[in-house]
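Field notebook, page 604. I keep forgetting to write these up properly, so this time I am using the form the group agreed on. The chain and the ligand, adenosine-5'-diphosphate, are recorded exactly as supplied. Prediction of the bound pose follows.
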Amino acid sequence: MGQGVSVVEETSSDSTTYRIHRVMADAWSHTALKDSLQVVADGVVEVVGFGVAAVSVLHDTGELEVVALSGDDGARDELLGTFSPLSGLLEELTVAEHWGPRLRFVPHERLSQNVSTIGWVPDYEPVDDPDAWHPMDLLIALITDDAGEIRGSMSVDLPDDGMRPGPERRRQLETYAEQAARAIVSAVERARLGERVRLADTARKVVREAAGELSSGPLLDAARQAVVDGFDIQGLWLRTFDDEDDERQRANREGTPIPAAMLEMGDRIARACWEHQRALMVSTRREDWLLSPEEHQRICDFLLAVHVTSILVVPLGAGQECLGVLALARDDTDPDWSDAEIAAALEIGQDLGRALLTARLFERERKLVDELQQLDAYKSRLIATVSHELKTPLSTVIGHVELLDTDDELSSRGQASVQAIGRGAHRLHNLVNSLLMLAKVGDPHNVIEPVLVDIGRALKEVAQLLEMQADDRDVTFDLVTPQDAVVAHGDPYELDQLVTNLASNAVKYSGDGGRVELGVEEGPAAGTLTMWVSDEGLGISESDQQQLFAEFFRSTNPQALAQPGTGLGLTIVARIVERHHGRIEVDSELGVGTTFRVTLPLAP
Ligand code: ADP
């Protein structure tokens, strides 16, 4: 047993061998036990007729403690709460007369030492009769349990009639000693059960804590240890139904493998147990309706072969599904499983089942994310390679188109064709550039080497760059920048691209004669800057706003769709903002206009 609840040892004194059962102090501190033993002592004094009766219990130190005393006040003051070694008593008892299964009598003339080391000597004048009681006589009942192990003692003195007790009184004393034994054994049992409940409770808590573990391997290892320690068992089989690690789950703590036929039966029992939300106890002493007599016999044969006398089978599961089985094994020093232990084990099966399911889902999800990430990386590589390969021939096409465009000898039909080819080639060129940019800002291996970037200046340069485009539509730029430069820390090319994409969209999706505001300021929080691009154009519907930054997303608004575009500009913007640890927000209303606001860390 764990925590030294009891220790059984054997000692022999000459012809008699005593089994001594020492019990942890907890059992004795129980007031209920002391009260019961007091009733025994009182009975001996009042009913059997003695001046003093003392009951002692045996501690795990090997000492007897007097815990109940009835009769003489002087004896109570002197003896109650005192300790004496059991070994000394047993030595004296080697010469004792056996007056019954428990009762031992040592006449004063046989005592080897002063009896006061064992008990109290009354101040009493002996009567001159061979059957008369002598103050130095020792009459003691050894309190033994069902297994015959010593648990304590009950000694008496001062018989009312001054005589050594005859057969009737000896029988009565035996009965009282038996009563004391029962009180002691049940107190020990109570303490032992309390201890088990406490351990099972600890196991339950540990399993619950382990449930935070999101990989099934470590989760099962932690649970296995908690159950073995918590239930103080000799062996544990833990098996989950869809675990490929067969070796691990087949073995118990000592590595005893389970035969395949037994595994199959275990699975069936676990599923039946889960269906009925119960556990199953199997031992030679106990049959259960869940098992056929043959199954019961097969399990008992197996248990015998692995030196186990009882097992508690507990299903693991969640919802409708039974996910595995726990089998807790005990050998013959342990009796049956208590209700509290069974309840705790069942709860562990449920907690562990739920945790296992979560861990499995999490593992599956992690695997899926890994696969998707690999797929995404592959796609990015493919796009980057194709785009790169397209870039050179496209540049050649554009170069030749420009050359042809200046050829006066070309017919007007030929000129129209060349211009159409030119428009198409430019669109393709834009697409290729966007794809290359997207691949670049989406590549986690491509890290930024930051420098100081004056955002106000970047806005001004972009406005100049887009001047022609804006003029075509009669759109005007307003620049709102503070006197002092507002400086970010980042990749100048990427930040320039960010402003260009937002500003060119603002122009593209503005009506003729619109106004576009480009601005920057420090704040709102300390150490940040805010840059904005506002227009009075088409605006973006609420539903479109949800997908605005997705790759290849283009508006559902036909007016917006009429403008050329790839649906990649804002995706690139969002990635650049993310790479610079910033944030982007959009504020837009259909037919009124749109504002994109980007917050970035200010350069230190
Ligand atoms: P593109 O402009 O090439 O289509 P973007 O990713 O830059 O791709 O923009 C995605 C969509 O968001 C656009 O198709 C457009 O419908 C909408 N959008 C972006 N900016 C604005 C804006 N300033 N005003 C109205 N709609 C916009």
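OBSERVATIONS:
- The chain has four domains: 7-191, 195-364, 376-442, 451-601.
- Residues 1-11, 246-253 have pLDDT under 50 and may be disordered.
FOLLOW-UP: compare against the apo run.
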